[in-house]
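Protocol step 4 of 6: structure prediction from sequence.
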Amino acid sequence: METIEIPLLKAKASRICLGTWAIGGWMWGGSDEEESIKTIQTAIGHGVNIIDTAPAYGFGVAEKIVGKAIKQAGIRDKVIIATKVGLQWDDKGQVFRNASPERIEKEINDSLRRLQTDYIDIYQIHWPDPLVPLDEIAETMLSLLESGKIRAIGVSNFSHHQMMEFLKKAPLSTSQPPYNLFERDIEKDVFLFTEEVGIVTLAYGSLCRGLLSGKIKADTAFSGDDLRKQDPKFQPPRIYQYLNAVAELKEFAKKKYNKSVLALAIRWVLDSGKTIALWGARHPEQLKNIPDVMDWSLDADAMAKIDQIIKSNVLDPVGPEFMAPPIA
């Protein structure tokens, strides 16, 4: 397993991070605790030592499962827990942004309880909240850092301007934006900034919600509250453009590297810079390809070929904007 240093953390982090949004069940068709715990244990067995979660993932369910799995295994000192703060929900399950100091102070204690720990390694603002001054948010996070409740501060879905403002009041160790072969808006400015100042990128959606796994078909059905029912990438006629790109990427990965398109997609994220790829899973078998991603790399010609395949097939691209929660 490849590793990377994250500012302020003593232990190096694996460059694959287990993403637990699906484990929480909300917007992914439900949750199975026993299967989820097995998934976490399988990830750790593959050398993954960083787990990303959030209170909003199943309204506390994902954090509780992560805490239980780590407690059962007795490995708290060997695992980097990254969770988030700044989203609130009502009794109808409606989620909205709230990064007020009062909300942060409440959430940190709720998360510590659910995760069964007395500190969080990386505490991230889940979404920027324009109703709360950034300096107030940063100062609140800094107080948690100084108190020892958290070991490092991160942000998620922040612009480079927002990070610059945040850094005036508190240090930032990580940035968590959506980043994959099909969603690359951060390359315009965010990624340039974080690479320059040494902030590590936790790339979420590395497989674009399964689209780059190679298993999605045009007639794949999504049940319940699965968020892919809302994702414009998965709706016709756009889905055909993306699937055509995946088919060509799959052929290229097999011919040039004898790898799967999934391995190619993750390797591309890792070869892009100071990055950790979030690998979302809720079943152990979804992690079996982790070894296929390690110990090889993409050269400049391969990167260019990948770009060409995407540009020639995806003529009507769309980003992940549909996932943004409303402002309170």
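Step 5 (inspection) to follow. The chain has one domain: 3-213+269-290.
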